[in-house]
Amino acid sequence: MTTCPFNPAEDGAQMAFDGRMSYGDYLHIDRILGAQTPLTDAHDEMLFIIQHQTSELWMRLALHEIDAARRMIAADRAQEAFKMLARVSRIFEQLNSAWDVLRTMTPADYTTFREKLGQSSGFQSWQYRLIEYAVGNRNLAMLKPHAHRPDLTERLEAELARPTLYDEALRHLARQGLPVPQDVLARDLRDTWTLHPGVQSAWEIVYRDPTAHWQAYELAEKLVDFEDYFRRWRFNHLTTVARVIGIKRGTGGTSGVSYLRRMLDVELFPELWALRTTL
After folding, report:
1. Closest C-alpha among 207, 186, 209, 210 to residue 196
2. What is the pTM of this model?
């Protein structure tokens, strides 16, 4: 028995888009799909380009969510920030999955186009730098790779003038009556965060009686969730690089695996990790 193919128009689907907005129009699909311009005929260069381009799109969304979460926390609307922070964690879960695809590229595959990358390298991603600056790892030396772009330098400097996500969380705690040290609340925002015993003590109050400080407790766990995924992303970056290029230097001149291994030691919210030992 044969059946006629289903015609979506009979179910009310719009089928004519002359002069009307279509799916491709709304998402600018032609522009997105026209942005892949390999420099060689190597088969795997397309994978390399798309993996990094899609990562940048996810980072753009992560910045959108982190910025909104900061504004909500600054306004003492922490409950509304929780969904945004949870979404950022899921974004980094997606970014972690992207390494699984890239790891299908072998060292032999990569050598077919690596030299065409010149000095370009992922550590030059200005969106990644904005994420790090937004959440607290404010390494001023990392402004230099963007000095050739005044617009990017201005954007990064503007970020350095703002309280980080963690700063806003601690200011929120202080407004809720928790003993966040004054020197922390008045600190130089351009400095990268380092562990502060007084901040750890404030968080320990929250963790010793979660019921009495439930909102602060949930905020802390949302921050830990994010950093957990973020650190997994760094680890997956390290293992992918080790699998593809071994211990060779990166295209941007970094020490490659050694550089990425040092990044694993960076903690964004160190007090939230340290208190797990002291509780």
Report:
1. 186
2. 0.90
Burial label for 92, CB within 10 Å (0-12, 13-18, 19+), is buried
The structure tokens 């293992």 sit at 239
Q: Who contacts 203 (Cβ-Cβ below 8 Å, separation ≥6)?
A: 173, 220, 271, 272, 275
Contact 216, 206 (CB under 8 A): yes
Kindly report the CATH number assigned to the domain that includes residue 204: 1.20.58.480
Quote the mean pLDDT of the chain: 92
Number of domains in the chain: 1
Which of 97-111, 163-177, 228-242 tops mean pLDDT?
163-177
Domain assignment of residue 183, yes or no = no
Let me know the angle formed at the C-alpha of 83 by 82 and 85, rounded to the nearest 5 degrees.
Answer: 65
Q: Which domain holds residue 264?
A: 43-168+194-245+254-278
